[in-house]
Amino acid sequence: MATPFLSSSSTILHLLLLAAVSLTAAGATVTHLHFFWHDVLTTPNATAVAVTQPADPSSSFGQTVVIDNAMTEGPDASSALVGRAQGLYVVVSQNASNPALLMVMNLVLTAPEYNGSTISIIGRNPVLQQERELPVVGGTGHFRQGRGYALLKTYSFNATTGNAVVEYDVYVTH
Ligand SMILES: *[C@@H]1O[C@H](CO)[C@@H](O)[C@H](O)[C@H]1NC(C)=O
Ligand SMILES: *[C@@H]1O[C@H](CO)[C@@H](O)[C@H](O)[C@H]1NC(C)=O
Ligand SMILES: *[C@@H]1O[C@H](CO)[C@@H](O)[C@H](O)[C@H]1NC(C)=O
Ligand SMILES: *[C@@H]1O[C@H](CO)[C@@H](O)[C@H](O)[C@H]1NC(C)=O
User: Fold this and answer.
1) CATH architecture for residues 29-173
2) Ligand 3 centroid to 112 CA: how many Å?
3) Which atom of ligand 2 is least distant from the CA of 97?
4) What is the DSSP string of the chain?
5) Torsion of Cα atoms, 95 then 97 then 98 then 102, to 10°
6) 69: closest CA among 34, 31, 41, 100?
7) In angstroms, rounded to a whole number, what is the distance separating the alpha carbons of residues 51 and 5?
8) Where do the domains of the chain lie?
9) What is the pLDDT, as a whole number, of residue 26?
């Protein structure tokens, strides 16, 4: 007689095989999204708000910023809105010469073809590098079961205000 452990593990194996077959039969889709992400720290229209200050004022290590940043089709903030990036980033490098952020955010899409779908990103962003790669760890709606990556390039950065525009190329397999 099979023990519960054996019967449940054979059920799991069976389900895994079904999943692999249906994935192969259905084929995966790769969607590429291109947009510009606006980090606006200045009032009156700030969409990025520092919620902690660093313990050591000579360093930004530990600073945490909560964002509800606009994502637009073009680099100009007045171009068509495609969604908002909601989440946070934290300065996680102690070495100011090599700054890195931990970014945790959901891209909440409102463009007609993806309206209501989300893409979840968590990753390391070494902001001074010309191109950064962050993992896409999941999605909802159109992007359910999504996996992929995002490539980020700084389009503009104002050192006085801290405001930045970043170009995103996001590839999601779903
Ligand atoms: C803030 O937003 C309002 C409303 O969209 C706009 O009229 C104004 O020009 C913005 N101000 C700045 C400084 O961007
Ligand atoms: C800080 O980063 C710079 C640039 O990557 C590097 O040259 C330097 O050795 C680092 N300093 C420390 C203390 O790790
Ligand atoms: C997106 O969905 C929301 C909520 O269902 C709706 O109010 C809005 O009009 C939709 N926008 C577009 C561009 O389809
Ligand atoms: C940076 O922002 C300041 C304050 O709004 C502005 O005066 C300056 O022109 C901006 N610099 C650039 C390069 O856009």
Assistant:
1) Beta Barrel (2.40)
2) 7
3) 2
4) ---HHHHHHHHHHHHHHHHHHHHHHH---EEEEEEEEEE--SSSS-SEEE----SSTT--TT-EEEEEEEEESSSSTTSPEEEEEEEEEEE--S-TTS--EEEEEEEEE-SGGGTT-EEEEEEEE-TTSSSEEEEEEEEEGGGTT-EEEEEEEEEEE-TTT--EEEEEEEEEE-
5) 60
6) 41
7) 48
8) 29-173
9) 59
Q: Is 112 in the pocket of ligand 3 (CB under 6 A)?
A: yes
The pLDDT profile of the chain, 174 residues, written as one tens digit per residue, is 333 333 333 333 333 333 333 343 457 899 999 999 999 999 999 999 999 988 888 889 999 999 999 999 999 999 999 999 999 999 999 998 999 999 999 999 999 999 999 999 999 999 999 999 999 999 999 999 999 999 999 999 999 999 999 999 999 999
Question: Does residue 112's CB lie within 6 angstroms of at least one atom of ligand 1?
Answer: no
